[in-house]
Amino acid sequence: MHKTICAAIILLAGAFAASAQTGGTAGAPPPEVVKDLAPTGKLRAAINLGNSVLAQKDAASGEPKGITVDLARELGKRAGVPVELITFEAAGKVFEAIKAGGIDIAFIAIEPVRAAEIEFTAPYVLIEGTYMVPVDSPLKAIADVDRAGVRIAVGLNSAYDLYLTRTIKNATIVRASTGGGRAMIDLFLTEKLEAAAGVKQPLVAYAKTNPSVRVMDGRFMEIQQAMGVPKGRETAARYVRGFVEEMKASGFVADALKRSNQPDAAVAPPGG
User: How far is residue 150's CA from residue 139's CA, in Å, rounded to a whole number?
Assistant: First the structure.
């Protein structure tokens, strides 16, 4: 009996430690969290339709669906507030809306430039950034792309635009007018550029419809998709960080990815 009690105490202590590390969130948040999370009385959630891994438009209703919609609604349910889904066509537009004060919760990749305006959680999903090239391109490996004379199409202010801007040394980055959807693919095709950078899944889907292009093996970056609240909302941020950890551990994230037919996206490991 004594050993059983000791074991239970150890397990309970471990659970409290894990909760403290993530900000801890089980059940409904207290009033001060709700006030910081949804100061207008509703949760204004940014849904980026430009990233098909995260959100899609329902063919029948035209309404947004996908993992980010599911997470936003679950967070609103926990907080006891209505959820307003505000759709955008690119992550860059989401970032601008956060800076303007029109968003309470966003689903956006972690990037140092964005951290000046956003309190990020740990990632909930990991996706790959890779290149698409002409089928007969001499570029074979990811490292081949960063060479003089290579022009890379990117979506303006996308996570991969920000990353490549920091890391590319020799190639030239050419930015589409927007960062969402297939804008960089259109630019790549129209200008006959050497490569298009983007999220792997949409590039693979497009390549299946066009035999004149191919998607490279491997990746140039791991895109860490996280939830975030406007900078300074520390009370809300602590709760949402715990919420994300709970959603990963419970299987909610994995189930949402399955429902939205995104089998290639990986659930991120527990946050530190």
Answer: 9
Residues 6+ apart with CB under 8 A from 233: 36, 37, 119
Contact 260, 71 (CB under 8 A): no
In this model, does residue 3 exceed pLDDT 60? no
**pLDDT score for 272:** 60
Distances (CA, A) of 264 to 23, 51, 117, 174, 207: 29, 14, 30, 28, 16
The domains of the chain, with CATH numbers, are 2-125+225-267 (3.40.190.10), 127-221 (3.40.190.10)
Q: Is the dihedral of CA 221, 196, 141, 265 positive or negative?
A: positive
Asked if 203 and 132 count as a contact pair (C-beta separation under 8 A), the reply is yes
Contact partners, residue 239, CB within 8 Å, separation at least 6? 23, 25, 29, 33, 37
Q: What is the pLDDT of residues 152-211, one digit of tens each?
A: 999 999 999 999 999 999 999 999 987 666 889 999 999 999 999 999 999 999 999 999
Q: Partners of 65 in the beta sheet?
A: 56
